[in-house]
Design a protein that fits this description.
The chain is of the alpha+beta class and 177 residues long. It has a domain at 85-176: Immunoglobulin-like (Sandwich), CATH 2.60.40. It contains 3 helices and 6 strands. It has a 3-stranded antiparallel sheet with strand order 1-6-3. A 3-stranded antiparallel sheet has the order 2-5-4, with no helix packed on it. The N and C termini lie far apart (96 Å).
Length: 177
């Protein structure tokens, strides 16, 4: 061996070269000799698997942790109509308006009862009362009246007639369930 090659042949260079061959040989052994599906979560380092490592459609809903997805993870255009929500397309609103006479200035305020009724075959889901004037009128009550109507009572404390409107939210009996 020449003198120039001999100076490059040091203990650390030989050790490094041997270590390189052992490391490469170990990886080759693992790639060719490990049984199929023998690597599990215990062998994978944290964040060792990324999106590019997972085949398209390889993760199903059963494999997703509950609560780990939000609305930004879902393509809404791929969703159909929710079966129980189809009845909501059949919801209708029925209204009735009444005039409340002006307050005479003495005694009790004038009041009016009004009822909005659903069409035959419908049930009332909810309802409400609105008044023309927030200053002169007061809604006293708003309630379901049986299974197919909504009623309300309003008072007028003003010196001129005011109106009130009762609204019933209605749906076919079969859609309510």
């Amino acid at each position: 061996m020449s003198r120039s090659n001999r100076s490059a042949l040091t203990y650390s260079n030989v050790t490094a070269t041997i270590a390189l061959f052992v490391a490469l040989g170990g990886a080759s052994y693992a790639a060719t000799q490990l049984p199929r599906n023998s690597v599990g979560s215990a062998q994978i380092k944290s964040n060792g698997v990324t999106n590019t490592d997972i085949a398209r459609n390889a993760v199903t809903g059963a494999k997703v942790r509950t609560g780990s997805l939000d609305g930004t993870d879902i393509d809404l255009t791929t969703l159909g109509t929710v079966p129980t929500a189809t009845g909501l397309a059949k919801v209708t609103y029925k209204t009735t308006s009444e005039s409340i006479a002006p307050y005479a200035g003495t005694g009790s305020y004038t009041s009016k009862l009004a009822t909005a009724t659903c069409d035959p075959g419908q049930s009332v889901l909810g309802g409400g009362v609105s008044v023309e004037s927030q200053e002169d009128e007061l809604v006293n009550s708003s309630y379901p009246n049986g299974t197919n109507a909504w009623s309300g009572v309003a008072f007028n404390s003003g010196s001129s007639a005011r109106s009130m409107t009762v609204t019933a939210v209605c749906a076919p009996v079969s859609a309510t369930g």
